[in-house]
């Protein structure tokens, strides 16, 4: 297996990614390098061939490539604030299914920043939702008996109290 | 995400293209068929749009399938190990591993991989290495290691998912480290291999030390391998190579040190040591691990330097002392550098140099009993010693601070061994500041004075120096011997910087007096002209000195001056006292001088007919007695420059030609020792200086010896200066006197210090008081605790201090 010593030359190359429905995505070397797995694959096998990625649909692949292409340049040229805005836009209208597909894809391909971004988005979506609603979203079967449920709710009551600790608030005011 | 129960399973049998058998494409991502573009494969039980559908996982990867996957991977790994990886698809293997881990078969995979690697190492690699033990061992070892690294990296890449997920979760070693551990355990730590490796490496080093050529890069690679095999610790490297290496080296250098010592020459020894250190350093850099360099250098230092440093430093005929004597600056520098490397080395060489310096210094300051040292030579030699040491300091010892300290301490030590050092130092400076200093330029004088200041700092009894300096300065100023005012002022400002104003205020006062005297004299002259005062033919010049600034005569003045100068002085006195009322003027005879006009009549004691010499001013011969004439030579006139005492003596010879010593004493009332000194220089100096003839011609002067005018006095010069007897130092009694004055002053200073301190602190214990006093006075002199105690007692008596009732050792201030 050849290593990749002539990195400069390789940068010019395009990498061919063949996905499940035999569509071929051609991306630039730098873009592909955002994926750790692709990086290893290419260094081990060389850039000549096509890398097959059977797990991934074209729609998901498109999204991934879009993200990676943007972020290749983002590091150097675009301000952090703008990048954040773009990221939010990128994920805004995606439905949950797509999101989860994306997560699986990024985990497979080892793209850290995108994975973190998506997970964060999902987390935001279930924030402040009741248990029922979360179950709906994730389609989880409720396997707790009513007693168990009551008990758990009771134990965690404190986290739901809004008023916090009024005494301490008073003290703070006094000291301040 | 828990495996949901929604919807039926999607068929696990969809075979993805391009993959090896059985991989379940739908582990994870969409199993892509053209059928489902966007929506999940699971049957929709609820609305699609916003709600999340669980991915349809095959809940169970059945064993047969997973075994199949594993076998694929296993054979792939084995191919990689055989360097046959060309035909493998990275992505497929990666996906296989991914699948297994995802379906909770991570441990099977992990253990399986471990087993494959171990098998390969044990059954192939180790055997290869064992076969090469006597045939290109290092080469083969290097090769298998390199191969191992490459294959492990590839294996790691395809198993990356397992590394990230399974390894993290179960907290086991990652794949690469697993490979390292296995290599270490099954190849390197195999007894034969390990021992042979160690032996080979050590042998190579030994060969190189003997000067043979070796293949260094093999060793370098092997060392790096050993380091890497320790993963985060150097223990493998240390155990297999470094520790035995250091031990072998220590033994080697033990032998070497003996060999070098036997050559019995310190300078060759140190050069050889330097060379060896250099060599070992380079070797370590070339092919050993970075951390070894320091250790091996330390070993060399230990064996060659630390263990033998005393022998080298003190080696006979070539040790440090000899180097100092022979001025071997380079050798000393080399020695210094070497000894600095080890902790006690610097101390060793410092003590040796210090001992030498003290010995040298001591021999310079020690005088024979009763012998008179030449002060200028004394100081000059000390300055030269300092210069020599300074050269060593800079060139050999790199201006090391410890050496600076040592030199200062040693100089302080031996300079103060001789109590006459302050006096001599003052005399030396006096010599430089007097006229006729053999044509030294201002800058040269400046440099010399700067160096003397260095010695001054080492003096303990600075107040003794002050006293002498005052005396000498007074002489210089009054006898007009100063080479330049600027140099004098320069010297004083140096002393001021060193010791503060108190030291120099009196000296500056002396200068002021001189200036004032000059202007007073000008006024006096114009006064004389205006008032027509008559000075009895004496060209008078008076210097008015403020008492207290100038060193005073102990005995009051009772010498009888000749009439003419006496009357002239009275005129001046009247003038001065009219100007400054309320002052008192006392004549000080020991520092005056006079120019006399003298006529020498030739061999016979005769006097000329006054008529024959109409032009001469017989200033000092108002009552010349006529004698018979018959001279054979022409009478010769000279101006003689003499001291005041000598003037008194010589003026008497206008009455008679000869006097006895007792006569002279009676008539002039000059104190005895001054009289003797004056007579000595008049009668017993060099031939062309003998104004008087002494009979009998012995060396001592007794009261009944006769002194006669020497009419056959001749001199090439018209103006003859009668030299005072060279008083390079005081005589014993004078010295004692000065000493007692110093002690007297010190008493006062100590008492003043005590009172000052007690006034501020109100109460102090005895020991802290003594410390405080010593601290305050140390710039002038070192008071001894005994003397301080005496002064405290005296002050208690005079009720300045009191002892407290509770504690006899504490004092209070009595207001």
UniProtKB/TrEMBL annotation, chain B:
Biased composition annotated in UniProt, kind: Polar residues: 37-51
Pathway annotation from the record: Protein modification; protein ubiquitination
InterPro entries (UniProt xref): Cullin (IPR045093), Cullin-like_AB (IPR059120), Cullin_CS (IPR016157), Cullin_homology (IPR016158), Cullin_homology_sf (IPR036317), Cullin_N (IPR001373), Cullin_neddylation_domain (IPR019559), Cullin_repeat-like_dom_sf (IPR016159)
Localization per record: Nucleus
Single GO term (MF): ubiquitin protein ligase binding
Sequence intervals crossing the membrane: none
Principal location class: nucleus
GO cellular component terms listed in the entry, alphabetical order: cullin-RING ubiquitin ligase complex; cytoplasm; nucleus
Gene3D superfamilies per UniProt: Cullin Repeats, Cullin, Chain C, Domain 2, Winged helix-like DNA-binding domain superfamily/Winged helix DNA-binding domain
Any single GO BP term: protein polyubiquitination
Record keywords: Isopeptide bond, Nucleus, Ubl conjugation
Residue stretches making up the Cullin family profile domain: 420-683
Disordered as annotated region, ranges: 1-52
Biased segments, Gly residues type: 1-10, 17-28
Family membership noted in the UniProt record: Belongs to the cullin family.
UniProt-recorded name of the protein: Cullin family profile domain-containing protein
